[in-house]
Amino acid sequence: MRVTWITEDDAPAVVEYGTTSGQYPFSATGTTTSYSYLALYHSGNIHDAVVGPLKPSTTYYYRCSSDPSREFSFRTPPASLPFTFVIVGDLGQTGWTKSTLQHIAATDYDMLLLPGDLSYADFLQPRWDSYGRLVEPLASARPWMVTEGNHEIERIPLLEPRAFKAYNARWRMPYDAGDSPSGSNLYYSFDVAGGMVHVIMLGSYTGFEAGTAQHEWLRGDLARIDRGKTPFVVALVHAPWYNSNEAHQGEGDDMRDAMEALLRAARVDAVFAGHVHAYERFTRVYGGMEDQCGPVYVTIGDGGNREGLADEYIDPQPKTSVFREASFGHGRLQVVNATHDDDQPVVADQVWIASLASNPDCNNPAGTGAQA
Ligand SMILES: [Fe+2]
Predict the structure, then answer these.
(1) Of 248, 275, 277, 330, catalytic
(2) 1-76 adopts what CATH topology?
(3) What digits encode the pLDDT tens for the residues 100-125?
(4) How far is the CA of 240 from the centre of ligand 1 (A)?
(5) What is the 8-class DSSP label of residue 318?
(6) Spans of all domains in the chain
(7) Fold identical between 1-76 and 78-370?
(8) In this structure, which of 47, 124, 147, 158 has its CB flanked by the most CB atoms within 10 Å?
(9) What is the DSSP letter of 76?
(10) Of 247, 338, 233, whose CA–CA distance to 299 is shortest?
């Protein structure tokens, strides 16, 4: 587990931890960085340290930079199924965000996945700090795995030519760890539940066409998955590849054209997106058509940001769009066993998804499922 925290003053990049509150027999030392933005803003000292090895399904108590006044705790994810993800995009820091965070905290979960658009700092760097304080109670307690949205870019020609400056400094993801390091904080993958679920975090705002580093990495990452051991594969992306909302129409099309065939050939089970501030679930789709071996597509960009909801939909509703609703909230993906998973209550919509690895029609090279 990587712990990231910020101190105003110089402080050691040390996390002390243990399984009993108030006792920290272990420690890990990491690194410290900082950044400036538009010459006016200087971040605090951004520390991160990787703690472990850790036992699964275990609560660890920890403190940062030896600060005795603040004890945190996190619970490590289970090493087997069932496994519960919270998925929420376009979170922001509004009253709606607060209510979404309360709803998330009210029911237990193992890991949070965020498909982009975190703080809506939008160039005003202190908003990254206030966002960190807002999510700290939850983000210090469970792994938060994020990928970038357009609001993370924060590039200003000539003045701030480096995109993702704050995001990369503050939200460092494990892109250099595991069997399939990507080399970029903007896309990466990891396994959970003892390898039963493979999660792929894609980058909508860095090169994705054939021949780019991301495309090459994705091909290799998908090729490495043994579906006999990993029944579920899900991907996250910011701009949706399927979307019948008027908002952001077509913005994910180029990336879909570049990568959709790879995902289908690898039998990726579901793709979650943000960007559109609403919820929408598609049936299994490929090439714009219903396809029993394509992923289920879900837009879950309704976390609570300050731009409000996207409530204008294209009429008539496409046949492939099963459910759509513009209201704030979050999603729960509970992976139950090797053949099914489901989308838990949160009132509006729920669905069972069977693993494509368990569908013989999608795994016979000569069969109808093998196109792509
Ligand atoms: Fe967005």
Answers:
(1) 248
(2) Immunoglobulin-like (2.60.40)
(3) 999 999 999 999 999 999 999 999 99
(4) 10
(5) P
(6) 1-76, 78-370
(7) no
(8) 147
(9) P
(10) 247
What are the pLDDT digits (tens) for 335-347?
998 875 444 444 5
CA of 161 to the centre of ligand 1 (A): 20
Q: Could you tell me the end-to-end alpha-carbon distance of the chain, in angstroms, rounded to an integer?
A: 37
Count, residues in the chain: 372
Per residue in 131-145, pLDDT (tens digit) is 999 999 999 999 999
- Mean pLDDT to the nearest integer, 83-91: 98
Question: In whole angstroms, what separates CA 338 from the centre of its chain?
Answer: 22
Burial class (CB in 10 A: 0-12, 13-18, 19+), 40: exposed
Determine the CATH number of domain 78-370. 3.60.21.10
**Is there a contact between 298 and 281 (Cβ–Cβ < 8 Å)?**
yes
248 counts as catalytic: yes
Peptide bond into 53 cis (omega under 30): yes
CA distance 84 to 219: 27
Are 84 and 333 in contact by the 8 Å Cβ rule? The answer is yes
